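#structure-requests
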Amino acid sequence: MRLELLNIGHRYGVLDVLDGVSFAVEDGEIVGIVGPSGCGKSTLLGIIGGLLAPTHGRVSASGALPPGCLNPLTYVFQDFALLPWRTVEGNIRLVLDRHRLSRTDKEARIDRVLAQTKLADFRAAFPRQLSGGMRQRVGIARALAVEPAVLLMDEPLSALDAQTRLLLMDEFAALFESSKTTVVYVTHNLGEAVRLCHRVVALSRRPGRIKDIVQVRTPLSARTGFAACLEADEARLWSLIRDEAAAADRELLDAR
């Protein structure tokens, strides 16, 4: 599915958060959104996902849904949002129960995403028994179970330690490449953005406007570990938002 954002703007009361944001996300593409604190990254993702109506502008979608798609737009959040009284399998099953699927289809979907996310041996475990990285894998598995056309990811790794983030970035890259799902990925971590995304949209400080869109030309399969080939892209992104980030930090401090 292809998404197109046309002149998106948003205001909370008298506070302008986004202004004139326009770009497209092609079918099967992974697009990152970065920018200083308070620039409207999560607000923009909420508008893309239909949780918020923009003050002006619009989001349009085109193209056929993938076979088996139950939910065109699906979120993955940083807080995992798992039900503690359900097992790993039960948390995944939750998103399938409201759909008219045969028992065989449900079981096949659950088995597939457990295998994709390396959770097959943990299907009977409860969230409290899992590490943070494992809990986020459950969140990803649950999202993939509905075979979304677009995956909307809001800081999915920010609550995890550095080692776990590195491990999950490699796993996310492999998942994205195999599933060919369209992804919009919000993060404050520039290294994460260039590791996982085909293009990265850099927003200015509030109100968020597009400063530039950086194309990451290294193939996703070649971006393993500490890939030196990504350093130039990360440095370019930092050069775009460094002054904006410093200014945004001063604004936040002044507001306390």
